[in-house]
Amino acid sequence: MNTNWSKWHDAYANPGSGLGDRLAAVRAQIDRRLDETAPNPVRVVSACAGDGRDLLGVLAGRSDADRVTALLVEYDAELAACAREDAKASPARIDVRQADAAQSEVYSDAGQADLVLLCGIFGNVSDVDIQATVEAAPQLCAPGAEVVWTRHRNDPDLTPSIRGWFADAGFEEVAFVAPDEDQWSVGVHRLAAAPRPLELGRHWFTFIR
Ligand SMILES: C[S@@+](CC[C@H](N)C(=O)[O-])C[C@H]1O[C@@H](n2cnc3c(N)ncnc32)[C@H](O)[C@@H]1O
Hints:
Layout lengths: L4 H4 L10 H19 L4 E6 L5 H8 L7 E7 L2 H11 L5 E6 L14 E6 L8 H10 L4 E10 L8 H10 L2 E7 L8 E6 L18
Parallel strand pairs: 1-2, 1-4, 2-3, 4-5
Antiparallel strand pairs: 5-7, 6-7
InterPro entries: SAM-dependent_MTases_sf (IPR029063)
Protein name: Class I SAM-dependent methyltransferase
GO biological process, one term: methylation
């Protein structure tokens, strides 16, 4: 990886980057999912979680955060430490794991998630890896789980293919947020098929940026 991902997060503070708007869209979907599942316990998995600001930001504004159990997987030590520090303020049970989120083993003790966050991944890995990750997503899911994912729509726009791969993997589309004035998009897919058991020893993607 050539990118300094810790520094990349600075762009959230830059209104021109669009990242803040994307974050708001992701948070809105997390919030909606938490509303829809209330008052039941909710299990969340976030792969390549960065500093966890999407989930942690939502939890900070909710009075029912204590029903959430979350596993955040992030490779970068600085970002993982930041997420861990921010998670201390939450009544949710949050495990921040500094590990390779592409390795299926990482999730072996996570249990089936009701909400899976795949944000900031699909713009940084090959098309083949995106397809492999989407195909594997049911392995992380509880019945009816939702996956929130992001991808830019720069030419050639891959999002039609990604949405098709989710359909092929047994998901139905809940939302696809794609503003005219910017190139980011946020997709949400709900697992309609049965979840699949976690296959150990799989490596779903490699960052190429
Ligand atoms: C584009 S950022 C997205 C961060 C966060 N999900 C967000 O949307 O703000 C990508 C993140 O993936 C992390 N990352 C890259 N490869 C990884 C891997 N194999 N396992 C875990 N994290 C990884 C980077 O360190 C970085 O924090």
